[in-house]
Amino acid sequence: MTEQPDNNGDFTYRVAIYARYSSEMQNEISIDDQIARCREEIARRGWRVAETYEDSAKSGWSLDRDGFQAMRAAAEKGKFQAVMLWKFDRLARDHNHTVMIKALLRHQCELKLYCVEGVSEDDNDSPYAALVEQMIAVFAAFYSRNLSSDTKRAKRARALRGEFNGSVPPLGYRLVRKSQATDEQPAGLYPDPELAPIIVEAFERYATGQYSDPDIADWLNAQPAVQEARKGQKPVGKDTVRDILQNRTYTGKVPYSETFYDGSSLGQKKKTRRGRVAWYEGKHEGIVPDQVLETCLTVREGLRRTYTNPTRMHTYILPDRVYCSHCIAEDHENLADEHYGKMRLAWYDRIDAAQYRCVARDRGYRKCAQGYVREQEVLDQVVRILSTMKPPPEVMARIDATVKARDSNSDALEEVRKLEEQVERVQYSWEQGLMSPDAYVEKMHYLN
Question: pTM value?
Answer without folding.
Answer: 0.45
